[in-house]
Amino acid sequence: MRVLLIIFFLFLSIFIPVSTQAKAIERVDLADVKAGDTLYFTHTKGTYIGNGRFLSKKGLVDIDLTDSYWIDSYVGLKRRSQSGSTMSQSQSMGSTLASRAISLIGTPYNQRGETPHDGFSTGSFVHYVYKDVTGSLLSKIPLRQKEAGTPVKRSELAPGDLVFFQGSSSVISGIYVGNQEFVIATSNGVAKRHLDRDSYYANSYVGAVRYSRDELRLSHPKTYENHEHPAVREAMRYIHTPYVLTGNTLAGFDCSYLIQMAFADGLDVHLPRITYNQWEVGLTVLDGKIDFKRQSLDDLIRPGDAIYFSNTWQPGISHVGIYLGQNYMVHASGDEGETTISYIASYWQERMTGAKRFDDLTLRLDHPVVQKASVLLGTPYVLGADEPETGFDTGSLVQYIYKESVGLDLPRFGSQQILTGVEVTEPETGDLLFFQGSSVIPAVYVGNGQMVVMTQLQGATIIDYKNSDYWAPRYIGARRVL
Question: How far apart are CA 129 and CA 208, in angstroms?
């Protein structure tokens, strides 16, 4: 009998394919965990779906695999065979998206809502589910969701795919969950509907898309955290910051302020505040829109370039984003209500003005006057003050910069400083510039059409005076004192 059993088990091990045999738990380092792995801990098990997300019996959980809690309780993992890993991971992701969508059934409808607490519109519902499960940032606008994904036939729909319908005024979107059913934010709240049995949706169906892992990667902030371009890395720090038109604080800001901050902090490039003024500086690498069916942006510009758009919320140049590659950009978007990553959909393609490269506008910190002026940026305006600890006014700032950087003693006031040195028609780095306000206002020219000047609202700041509606008409001359 024992011999027969041995022969039987030998038969199983030889003739049954390895892929159908139970796979043993492996002790793989947590740093090498991949999406699709089944992780085993002393207190739970589940499927790792990437980006710090773990699907267990309790639902979707955020886990930190570097935390001692998870490290100490880690037992091992099971990894599917390589041949089936891509399909299984895709199916796992789709099932998770479908499950999350179903879990939100009953959430109220709110055209402006973006959370389970506040409610959802159709677009914000899809955006929320995908962000919650994958960490990727789909648009909140259904038509743009449709353009960014890969079209899929209705007969090939799988859980997690997006389905689209023609609403009364625009396209609306939902998440397919299987068996011809989908979940969508209706006027009565988030609900499950049927592609055939619900006549409204059956008659208004306009297509479906699937987001591949690569497409999800392109809209995920972590993809760009270590990007080679400093302005891209800086912009990612502000993802989800609320959009506020004309806002200039970290509590909320607009598109041109994001560009201004990203280039200042990342490259020490100081750009004008207003979008159409930014367009006047730097190197033009693309002038005008392109035919996206025949040309690729990647062949014409590179990540880190700034893309400008016209006729968005107002006539003329009115929006800007930083190009990320493969038709994606990061921008402070009024439509999306925050700083986000967006596919450059047809809306943006039709309004493209061109692209600028600002990399060569970096301040010349090898020049002693420029270096000293740069470290004083942000120092507050205080009338009569004359040192960094207390502040400066217009004349004392210039006087201090030249004294501390090159040992040059200049008079105290702009009306006196304009009488020093030699008059020049084309200023060079380190020259003095003068403007007529209620009194003569001095400034330090730092190159690239920019100056460091003391202002009452911003303190010591950099301004592109040639493209400034305020400063350009007040310019009265330049003097060389070095």
Answer: 17
